[in-house]
TrEMBL record:
Gene from which the chain derives: selA
CC cofactor: pyridoxal 5'-phosphate
Job description of the protein: Converts seryl-tRNA(Sec) to selenocysteinyl-tRNA(Sec) required for selenoprotein biosynthesis.
NCBIfam families with a match to the protein in the record: selA
Source species of the chain: Alkalihalobacterium chitinilyticum
N6-(pyridoxal phosphate)lysine: modified positions: 300
Name of the protein this chain belongs to: L-seryl-tRNA(Sec) selenium transferase
Keyword Acetylation: no
HAMAP family: SelA (MF_00423)
Length: 465
């Protein structure tokens, strides 16, 4: 082993290797950058060999330098690749949190590119020639689509909840039904966010039943707010009862100092119930039912970028805008550009709303999906894979519309001698990565979340496999 270690070439010899120079030119790296990587590769090999017996080392001395260069090229290739990459979503889960949730519309993408490529009036009032506010960029269109008196945007809905509680209920009491003390992704709990904000949680009712009198009896001089949390990521069935927002407004009449706040979570602007999909209330409906303020996500049912949108009474929104956290939690110009373009689609015709990929995917008919699935089968003829059309169900995902299943068509893929896990891994590790589902020991691709362009990419990938 000591003899083998002595065969490791010095770095200056590696630098002279023709492939070292070729790698430097191919990946546009400086001499210093590539030298640092070469040192890391040699150090890694040395450490590995120290933990290896002589009998396990199969490299001849003349092969060592070649091996180092190969490892160096692998390292450079990995370093050069972007960490955030395109993924093809074949799972059928439309708002797949692990895969980036909502896809942006072409109009939103164009607006992001325009704003990113040029200077913009982010905080400049063109008409007056004076400093402006980034809140003004988005407020008008939010008011139009929700009917709110005022609005603002922060970086996600958890931030919106935190800001509202911190600014409006610090060292005060906030009443919440026990059945609404939800936990969202990443173990973020309403109770924990409330504790961080400095507000005091007052739990009322039970896990499955909360009544109006539970809220009435809990109100004290220290009560700042009644908070309703829309349970968009789970559903309680059976012996249950909850208090609609409309009923809480009658309680508020006797306690005008108490704010009514509803965290809607998903933030539907389109009423999917009109299409017999789910039971999600719209933002406009919540405000119309008496909420003083609501918050919701931009990248769920709304179909835009990650953002937390706060809408409601003007006096309340003004307090939030002036709070120090508003600057901490504000969004950048590209988020505002994408969000404005997405929201504007809701002010246009139904056809324009369908240009939002999330809305289009949720509303797409089974017959339309079947047509794309048949194209997949036709293009896959001659491949050494067994392709079969099957009916199935898609999920909306992203913690929205629990229990709602959308009828869809899938293509199952199998190959003799290959396990489903092997094929799943091969597709996942391809470029671009293709994420699928394994059902009954077969890989399945749900065509609800696959575009025509992506059908061609998948077929090409299968040909390479």
């Amino acid at each position: 082993m000591n003899e083998l270690m002595r065969q490791l070439p010095p770095i200056h010899e590696i630098q002279k290797h023709e492939r070292f120079l070729a790698i430097k030119d191919m990946y546009n790296l400086s001499q210093d950058q590539l030298t640092v990587m070469a040192k890391e590769v040699v150090a890694h090999i040395r450490k590995a060999w120290l933990n290896t017996s002589d009998s396990e080392c199969t490299l001849a001395p003349e092969q060592i330098q070649h091996f180092i260069i190969e490892e160096l090229e692998k390292k450079v290739k990995e370093f050069s690749a972007y960490s955030l990459q395109r993924v093809i979503n074949g799972t059928g889960t439309i708002l797949h949190t692990n895969l980036g949730r909502a896809k942006l519309s072409e109009e939103a993408i164009d607006q992001v590119v325009l704003v990113a490529r040029n200077y913009s009036n982010l905080e400049y009032n063109i008409e007056s020639g004076t400093r402006g506010s980034r809140h003004d960029i988005i407020e008008k269109v939010i008011k139009t689509v929700t009917g709110a008196e005022a609005a603002m945007v922060v970086n996600n809905n958890a931030a919106a909840v935190y800001l509202i509680l911190k600014a409006l209920a610090k060292e005060k009491e906030v009443i919440v039904s026990r059945g609404e003390l939800v936990e969202i992704g990443g173990s973020f709990r309403v109770s924990a966010i409330m504790e961080e904000s400095g507000a005091t949680l007052v739990e009322v009712g039970t896990t499955n039943k909360t009544h109006s009198f539970d809220y009435e009896e809990a109100i004290t001089e220290q009560t700042a707010m009644i908070m309703k949390v829309h349970t968009s990521n789970f559903k309680t069935i059976g012996f249950t009862a909850s208090v609609p927002l409309k009923n809480l407004t009658s309680i508020k009449k006797d306690h005008p100092q108490v704010l009514l706040y509803e965290d809607l979570g998903s933030g539907a602007l389109l009423d999917f119930r009109d299409f017999h999909i789910g039971e999600e209330p719209t933002v406009k409906e919540a405000l119309g039912n008496g909420a003083d303020i609501v918050s919701f996500s931009g990248d769920k049912l709304l179909g835009g970028p990650q953002a937390g949108i706060i809408a409601g009474k003007k006096a309340i929104i003004q307090r939030l805008k002036k709070h120090q956290l508003a600057r901490v939690l504000r969004v950048d110009k590209m988020t505002l550009a994408a969000l404005e373009a997405t929201l504007k689609a809701y002010t246009y015709s139904d056809e324009m709303q369908n240009e939002i990929p999330t809305v289009k995917a949720i509303l797409e008919s089974k017959s339309s999906i079947q047509k794309r699935a048949m194209q997949f089968l036709e293009k896959g003829q001659g491949l050494p894979f067994h392709l079969k059309l099957e009916e199935g169900t898609s999920q909306i995902g992203g913690g929205t519309m629990p229990g709602v299943e959308l009828g869809t068509f899938l293509v199952s893929i199998a190959r003799k001698g290959w396990s489903a896990q092997r094929l799943f891994n091969e597709l996942r590790l391809s470029e671009p990565s293709i994420v699928t589902r394994i059902i009954d020991e077969k890989v399945h691709i749900d065509l609800r979340t696959i575009t025509e362009e992506e059908v061609d990419i998948i077929i090409t990938t299968l040909q390479h496999l």
